[in-house]
Design brief:
GO terms for molecular function: transmembrane transporter activity. It is found in: Endomembrane system. It comes from Spiribacter curvatus. This protein is 79% helix and 0% strand. By secondary structure, it is mostly helical. It has one domain: MFS general substrate transporter like domains (Growth Hormone, Chain: A), CATH 1.20.1250. Helix 1 crosses helix 5 and helix 5 packs antiparallel against helix 12. It starts with a helix and ends in an 11-residue tail after the last helix.
């Protein structure tokens, strides 16, 4: 096999993990879990209270990532075990996802616990998945490769979600008694999908070079982490980007996790909400590929700012929607913005950091991104409770997107598109 063919195989196997784990992000995190959490596991609670509980489940899962990500990344760097760490989180999380199907009605605390554990595994595995990017392609291709990964993720997650929607709407086609039974079965299918399509990465993507003997990886990781913290001030583009990312990716994540719950609170039907999420997925597929190309031409920072501007308009409109068709249009616009912001953020950051410390620095990347979710989803839910109308939740999104965009603009123009 030629070097070019070998690299294509590695890149394809790496990107296929986006196809794999996006099933959890789409079917579980954004799609069916928020609906079942409100209508099945918390049927006796008000919609606002159910949203608040879901927000706390997401926030506490993010807290765990905040605590473990930088050190775990540093240790994986030293031991050359980024791929092993990814799989060590992904496979248990896929199993826990399947176990959600066994949680009885009105057992909201157990559903929240399993969902939180699966979300921890999902986010931790992504830390190491992102870090592998710097070793599988040359820097000039990072924007395109990152966009390719996100594009496959949208396509794979969308296709599986489409199948799950069909099963929920027509459960008798699959020998199931009700839509609830179909939604619960979808958790099992998602866990199997996630584990199955992670296998190409396990077999074809190489580990990075070992920097320390594995027996010394923990102590070496601690020293490396301490050194990075001491010298982080010298990496001005890195910490400035991380501050901006901390803010705006919280808005992106909160939109993903709370949009369906928000629509349900406004009284939209389950079928309308599921269709809207499906629109987001299939629009996101070409949008992520397109924005990866745009990032190479106009610079990643400009591409991210375009996406954030669109998000601000989406959030403002979302506070006033009354009809399902508006939710559909907003879902399509989210698909355009979401894939580009996520893909370009990852590749932009990859160009700012030392490649030999990629997992460690992506630990900070994930800490800043996920620690924002400590306040984002809870605040989204809390505003609806405090102010007496779930529509006020949109204020949290607008503030986060605007603040992140303003900080991102402070990065010098020559740092806009690092190669």
């Amino acid at each position: 096999m030629s070097d070019a063919a070998g690299q294509r195989r590695v890149i394809g196997s790496w990107a296929l993990y986006d196809w794999a784990n996006s099933a959890f992000a789409t079917v579980v995190m954004a799609g069916l879990f928020p609906i079942l959490f409100q209508d099945y596991w918390n049927a006796s609670a008000t919609p606002a209270v159910a949203n608040l509980r879901l927000g706390w489940a997401n926030g506490l899962a993010s807290l765990v990532i905040v605590l473990i990500a930088p050190l775990a990344g540093a240790i994986a760097d030293r031991a050359g075990r980024r791929k092993a760490a990814l799989l060590g989180f992904a496979f248990p999380a896929a199993t826990i996802t399947a176990l959600l199907a066994l949680v009885p009605a009105q057992m909201g605390w157990l559903a929240a616990l399993l969902f939180g554990l699966a979300t921890i595994g999902f986010m931790a595995a992504n830390l190491f998945y992102d870090a592998l990017l710097v070793g599988i392609a040359p820097p000039e291709r990072w924007h395109a490769v990152s966009g390719f990964g996100f594009g496959l993720g949208y396509l794979g997650g969308g296709l599986l979600y489409l199948g799950c929607i069909v099963a929920v709407m027509q459960p008798h086609w699959f020998g199931l008694a009700s839509g609830v039974d179909a939604a619960l079965a979808a958790f099992v299918v998602t866990g199997v999908w996630w584990a199955l399509f992670a296998l190409p990465l396990a077999y074809n993507v190489p580990e990075p070079p070992v920097q320390s003997p594995r027996s010394a990886a923990v102590s070496g990781g601690l020293r490396q982490l301490r050194s990075t913290l001491i010298h982080l001030r010298a990496y001005r583009p890195v910490w400035l980007f991380l501050l901006a990312y901390f803010l705006y990716i919280d808005g992106v994540g909160t939109t993903i996790r709370m949009a369906v719950a928000y629509g349900r609170s406004l009284g939209f039907e389950q079928n309308d909400l599921m269709l809207a999420l499906l629109i987001t997925q299939f629009v996101g597929f070409p949008a992520a590929l397109f924005m990866g190309t745009i990032g190479q031409r106009i610079g990643a920072r400009r591409g991210i700012l375009m996406g954030l501007s669109l998000y601000i308009l989406i959030a403002a409109w979302g506070a006033f929607i009354h009809s399902p068709w508006e939710f559909y249009v907003i879902a399509g616009l989210v698909g355009v913005a979401q894939g580009g912001v996520q893909a370009l953020s990852r590749s932009f950051y990859a160009g700012l950091i030392p490649a030999s410390r990629a997992a460690e620095f992506f630990g900070f990347y994930n800490v800043l991104g996920k620690s924002a979710a400590l306040i984002g989803p809870p605040l989204f839910g809390a505003l609806g409770v405090w102010l007496g109308d779930v529509r006020y939740s949109m204020l949290a999104l607008i503030a986060l997107f605007l603040a992140g965009a303003l900080l991102l603009m402070r990065i010098d123009s020559e740092e806009d598109d690092p190669k």
